[in-house]
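In response to a reviewer's request, we include the raw inputs and outputs for one of the modeled complexes. The two entities were modeled together in a single run.
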Amino acid sequence: MATYRRQQVSPYLLLFIITGSQIGVGVLGFQRLIAQDAGYDAWISVIIAGFFVNAVVWFMYKMLTKAQGDIIDAHKQCFGQIIGSVLSLVILTYYLVLSISVLRLYIEIVQVWMFPTISTGLLAIIILLLCYYIVSGGFRVVVGITFLSGIFTALLYALLFHLPHKYIHMDNILPVFDHSFKDMLMSAKKSIYTMAGFEILLMVFPFIRNGNSSQKFAQWGVAFSTLVFTLSAFTTFLLLSENQIKHVIWARIYIASLIHLPFLERFEYLLISSFLIKVISILALLLWGTSRGLKLIFKWKQKYTLILISVICYIVCQLLETRYQINAFTDYTSRVSFYIFYVYIPLFSIFFMIMKSGKAK
Amino acid sequence: MKKYLLLLMICIALSSLNGCSLVPTVNVNELNLIEATGFDLPKPNQLKGTVVFPVFRPSGQVEFNVSSAEGETIKKVRERLDSQMRYRLISGQLRVVTFSMDLAKRGFFSIIDTFNRDPAVGNVIQLAIVDGETSDLLSLKQYQKENIALYLYDLLLHNSDTGPFPYTDFATFVYQYFEEGQDPYLPVLKVVNDKLKITGIALFKHDKLVTIIPWKYAFIFKAMKEDYKQGLHQFKIDGEYVAIDNLVSKSKYDVKIKKGKPEFTIHLNMNARIQEYTGKKPIFFPKHIKQIKKAIENDIEKNAKELISLLQKNNVDPIGLGSKLEAHQRDFDVKKWNKQYSSAKIKVKINLDILHTGIVE
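The model returned the following structure tokens for the whole complex.
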């Protein structure tokens, strides 16, 4: 771990890395998905899902502190060179898929709300070039952008409290606990895609100074994101009717469009535009993680792996054209996310710890 | 290398966003910004759309043009309108949408839905029903010099902000359309002696006009519907007239379920001041004020009872008693409620406090 000393960052920045990568484009529209099962009790499901994320982060820390490295080291120590690399590749592919879906979803929002005629490729290439520039600056630059984006999205957080009071209906969320626990768990499962992003911890870990004792920052970061997601779902439910939300794809942007300031009539355009920095910071983190992982596995230069994955990102983005395809893609991502990070990672951590303690004896 | 990359990116971004016109740009004065629109139903299945848009002359004068066209769908209407126009029609500045009574009786959600679907259309829209033809109303000669769109918009807005009309707009209408146990309502406009006037409140079941309640019930309807800030109202007491200014009014709903049937008690707490009094009696003694208070309370209660029986007779629920019940009852059943509504017991209890009588006694 000492080898990364020059690139290491302070542990408190983990707070920004975790919240920054968790709160992405999903927060603009996940309310509709979670309300499918648990109705307007779904905000409780978000809290439940948040606790699951906390637990997964705890497992990750158990494993990473034992391995004293990233997930690739852990896999290698546990399964050897070849099988370990294959398993690591699965996780890296997931990072890539996640970054593609983030990019495509954002471009879709821009196309639907702002510029219907703009081509996917143009926006993708501008964003990806910017990300390439950031990532080639090294890990500290990536974290710097994440830090900045965390501060810039204060706009989003402010939006959660600045609600157009004329449209608030407190009756919407009453009665609380009107759905069964099973429905709530189903909703919690649906919010996984939105809460995804903390997985980057698996790659970031060796770059955190005093990594072993940095867990509290990661946990607080997760807690903060959970708070933002819960508030975001809760306030949306106050404003939209339960039948209406089924039709509104980006509930949060819709709510932004209800806000009128004397100097700004169309608040949603400001929100969408300011989300670009959010998207760039998430993309930069994910692309950094993927390219670094590929570099470690194949012993290529990170520059080339970065170009490779950027090109893949660009091509796949072009292939996803309709709403239906994008939806199917994110659905698939969310399912993969569930199995990798809520099933595989805890199991692997337990297995890894048992194996390590066995060896120590 | 990195410097050149940044330079390249800036070049691409600038050229693609401005020069190569990949993002469409237009001059504001070369657009026809629709500010108001109206829809009539001249024949069954034949819509007639009317648009109002300003034309800016180089001399600084602004004229307001009104054009109409017919078609089966509103996009057909738009296409026919476009074929008459010098510039493209744009709906981003739309402020008022009106519907004729005939169209309202047939149902017009398909039109609302097109506006709701279009991201270019903002949410600062007032809806209204016109007693008569909307094309006649929008092309009134008296308002030709003035911007009739903004005139209507401000008229509707100030009557709901500080007047006796309950707040409603585009977003509220859509919410109420989707919400279970709540029926939408809209203001009714009429041309009386060449003057525009709000004459009543149109009540809907889904998107179909059911009945129009007269303007005199607006005060009590608003008091029940929302927390009321300001509004003048006149009462007749023993042949004398007294006008109060409703300073603060709060409504509270008590829901009880007796033998499976819901019972409502609406508590209205009003604080008012006396603004006008035509009687001879002095009104500075507590005794007299108490008399007036009692009389006004009785009057409001009578009004409220009339209004509620009117609503129950027509089986419309614009107050939203159904959604109050939904918030109270765990296993809420809409179908059952729809049957129960017309025979439900609804009591109104008024508590009026006359705070003062202005700056003189």
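As requested, we also summarize the result in words. DSSP finds eleven helices and 14 strands in chain B. The two ends of chain B are 84 Å apart (CA to CA).
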